[in-house]
Design goal:
184 residues; mainly alpha; two-stranded antiparallel ribbon; 8 helices; disordered C terminus
Length: 184
């Protein structure tokens, strides 16, 4: 601003451009405030759900991904097992065999892309904040898997972990930590 005020040469459309920039900046600031309020509303609504604490305890799953998960899944009773949920999310590979080829698998054609996105982003986030997830990802990479393939494998693993957590209504416990029974 100081440099602009000290400028001695003027351009023909300078005042018009300055008005446009000011208007756009005000709109961005207003939009940022509205997004923040919407985030607070979503977080408040999500945390009222009975499974919110369990879902958020899984590293990489915050209120936004948790809310997307609940919106995509609806009622977990619709899924008989974690494998059914994984198939719905597109994280369970399906056979691509023919008369000459066997054992080849690929991503299914029909799946819930939003749910797959939730687990993909949660897996991507968990690599940086969860040692167990990082170790699993590194193990898959050392087995020769490409980065994206290893990440999808981790997403499927995390889906299984979340399924077990929701089934038992228990928050996340890292591997190696024993769950103690409450004192009677």
């Amino acid at each position: 601003m100081t440099a602009a005020a000290a400028q001695t040469s003027r351009l023909p459309g300078e005042k018009v451009a300055a008005g446009l920039v000011k208007g756009l900046a005000e709109e961005v600031i207003d939009l940022d405030g509205r997004i923040g309020q919407l985030d607070r509303d979503i977080a408040a609504r999500f945390h009222r759900h009975r499974l919110a604490e369990v879902i958020c305890s899984l590293p990489g799953m915050g209120f936004r991904l948790g809310a997307e998960f609940l919106a995509a899944v609806g009622d977990l009773a619709w899924f008989a097992s974690a494998d059914h949920l994984a198939a719905y999310a597109g994280l369970a590979p399906v056979p691509n065999d023919s008369g000459k080829r066997t054992g080849r698998r690929h991503r299914p054609q029909r799946y819930h892309r939003g749910l797959r996105r939730v687990f993909y982003l949660a897996a991507l986030t968990s690599i940086g904040c969860c040692g167990v997830s990082r170790a699993y990802y590194d193990r898959k990479r050392s087995q020769g898997k490409q980065s994206k393939t290893a990440l999808i494998a981790l997403a499927g693993r995390r889906l299984n972990v979340l399924w077990a957590m929701l089934r038992d209504l228990r928050p996340y416990q890292p591997a190696g930590r024993a769950i103690t029974a409450p004192a009677a």
